[in-house]
Write a structure and sequence with these properties.
265 residues, alpha/beta, seven-stranded parallel sheet, two-stranded antiparallel sheet, 8 helices, 21% strand
Length: 265
């Protein structure tokens, strides 16, 4: 039942009830790594569903601005929030600044999408290649989710969607670092889902296979398509549609799950 307050007015001998509705709060979603690729597609999809999108990015100012401008041009709401997801201090400062601009709002949907690849055979893998991938693809989930989770629990509503990978499910040669980070992200998803379910916060993971994006631009698509039953790479928009469903009210009873989107791989 909608909450309302009656204001009664006597007019021509009749009591005419009037009401003022409780102000509707805008729902905000933060998408990390949203200036391009899968993150960009997710930002577009959620904007079309009525969310105000907070576009996180690190380096590409032009691409991030283009993403925001396109969302706004199509009637949506979006803003930029530049910070390094691998740096807890940068996260703290950026979120604090956002909260100062939106004192009566909170981010109730978080899509942990940012990730990097530093592929190499493990015998040749450098420390930096290992550490940088785990920092961006795994540790960032911990730093940022922990920072935003309290508000979700307080408001008894939240959606967290972690972008994992088929590499985290089956492993990939040359991706020991990436596979380790994405597999750990799945484990963290399952554990956190159990911690917060009673407060109506869901936590799920999406595990894409080969998706057409900047991250897969250096791969041999012709050869890799042969091992995909559907014989093609997926589209970023297809991943975005799945994320949008998991962020919706219709997915309120789905939590702790990892959903593959791999063309049958």
């Amino acid at each position: 039942m909608r909450k309302y307050t009656y204001l009664c007015k006597l007019q021509e001998g009749l009591v005419i009830p009037k009401f003022t509705e409780k102000k509707h709060q805008m729902r905000y979603v933060l998408v990390t790594g949203a200036s391009r690729g899968i993150g960009r597609a997710i930002a577009f999809k959620l904007a079309k569903q009525g969310y105000a999108v907070v576009i996180n990015y690190l380096h590409n100012d032009e691409a991030a601005q283009q993403t925001r401008d396109q969302i706004v041009a199509e009637g949506g709401q979006a803003e930029l929030l530049r910070f390094d997801v691998a740096q807890p201090n940068a996260i703290e400062q950026a979120v604090e600044q956002w909260q100062q601009r939106h004192p009566d709002e909170y981010i109730d949907v978080l899509v942990n999408n940012a990730g990097i690849r530093r592929d190499n055979l493990m015998v040749f893998m450098q420390n930096e290649e290992w550490e940088s991938v785990l920092q961006t693809s795994l540790n960032a989930f911990f730093y940022l989710t922990r920072r935003l989770l309290k508000d979700m629990l307080t408001h008894r509503h939240g959606r967290i969607v972690n972008i994992s990978s088929v590499s985290g499910l089956k492993g990939m040669a040359g991706q020991v670092n990436y596979s380790a980070a994405k597999a750990a992200l799945i484990g963290a998803t399952k554990a956190l889902a159990q911690e917060v379910a009673a407060r109506k916060v869901t936590v799920n993971a999406v595990a894409p296979g080969f998706i057409e994006s900047d991250m897969t631009g250096d791969l041999n698509q012709d050869e890799l398509k042969k091992i995909v039953p559907m014989k093609r790479f997926g589209k970023a928009e297809e991943v975005a549609a799945l994320v949008a469903f998991l962020a919706s009210d219709e997915a309120a009873y789905i939590t702790g799950e990892t959903i593959s989107i791999t063309g049958g791989l």
